[in-house]
Amino acid sequence: MPHDLAAISPVREPRIGHYQLLQTIGEGTYGVVKLARHIITGVEVAVKVIDRRGAYRPRREVKTMKRLNHPNIVKLYQVIDTEYTIFLFMEHASRGNLFRYLRRFGRMNEHEAQRMFRQLISAVHYCHQKDIIHRDLKAENVLLDAELNVKLADFGLSSTYVGRKMYTVRGSLPYLAPEVFLSECYDGPGADVWSLGVILYEIVTGKWPFMAVDETGLWRKIMRGEFQLPYFVSFLCKNVVKKILVLTPESEQLSNS
Ligand code: 6Z5
Description:
Blueprint: H1 3-8, E1 15-16, E2 19-28, E3 31-38, E4 44-51, H2 59-67, E5 76-81, E6 85-91, H3 98-105, H4 110-129, E7 132-133, E8 142-144, E9 150-152, E10 159-160, E11 165-166, H5 178-182, E12 186-187, H6 188-205, H7 215-224, H8 235-244, H9 249-256
Antiparallel strand pairs: 1-2, 2-3, 3-4, 4-6, 5-6, 7-10, 8-9, 11-12
Helix pairs in contact: 4-6, 6-8
The protein binds ligand 6Z5.
């Protein structure tokens, strides 16, 4: 559209920077996420709009995102800080999150699952190499682009670890490693790996490995580490899940060697 037409248009879409703000694509405790389009190039981005007077402080998230440059992690392009609002301009993953994708299309075939899980592992491994623990890995935080490539999102709960031990309980219960709520300190990267195991189970079955009617029941199941893999999951894939979702990885390794 020539810009003289835009100037006389009665509809004025809000602009920020060189972007036109479009519809809301998500909402969280921090505020809203909106789709935005670059006025000249037409490139679409996702903008996290954070209210400065709210409880969410994006400092850690911004600091972490600035250190990350990986094809399977959502990129942070620009931060615009104003009196009342902070705008985080990020990569837009147009196919939404993995949780909703699985709800809509059901479980994936193992060929697709392998491709996706490989990308996810690559992203998390990259973070761990930089001493960054995501701490909230779940299917909802795995975003997908137009080609169904993984774009890991939501580093709001992330943390860097010093000396490998973590103390605070973070994350979503169905994805939480037993040691996170059992012991007073746990291995940060290990807790992320457990969550990856839950996500792999979810990708190939469309369900969670641990389910119960209430939180107490769920805790109990996770602490026992007992889960069933359906008949249609291949022997090889079963083996991978079983090797990830182990209660005592240290002793497991000893008995294997
Ligand atoms: C998208 C497209 C539906 C849902 C998400 C973000 C900025 C918004 C949501 C989010 C979610 C982001 C990038 N791309 N959502 C983003 N795409 C999308 C259709 N969100 C960033 C990283 O914060 C939000 C919705 C799960 C995780 C993160 O449903």
